[in-house]
Amino acid sequence: MINNNTKEEFITEAQKLFDEGYACSQSVLLAFANHFKLDKTTAKRISATFGGGMGRLRETCGAVTGGFMVLGLAFGNEEPNDMDTKLNSYKKVRELNKLVTKVHGTSNCRQLLIKHASEQQVKDRKHHKLICRQVVGDTSGLVFDILKNSQKI
Could you tell me which InterPro entries the record lists for this protein (predicted)? Predict the structure, then answer.
């Protein structure tokens, strides 16, 4: 872990990446990549298929799954039998999911779109500005809070 960025800097970076055209999942993971010395090309590829609620399946929001990846970098287990670490990382994932749900009412991509955009707006790709960019920023901020509270940032 190498930098001392503020919460606002992580949020701004994630939203900037999203505005450049990266998927919501990529934007969140890439915003934290330097902090964990994660190669950006690897980060882009690992998180590439999670946009649109995981490959446009409209399941768990890509910003949230990108946040899960960041939590894995911070809390994930390296040994297969390290159940304490594994279970703690799962707890952090549930915490992030709960926080996103508290802010937005859901962490499900499809439900977020139904709540904030019409079918036509989604078809016209306008949902990015209506809700997705906000969730990218909010999720990045919540991930920062979890990391800060655990002294991982």
Answer: CGCAxxGCC_motif (IPR010181)
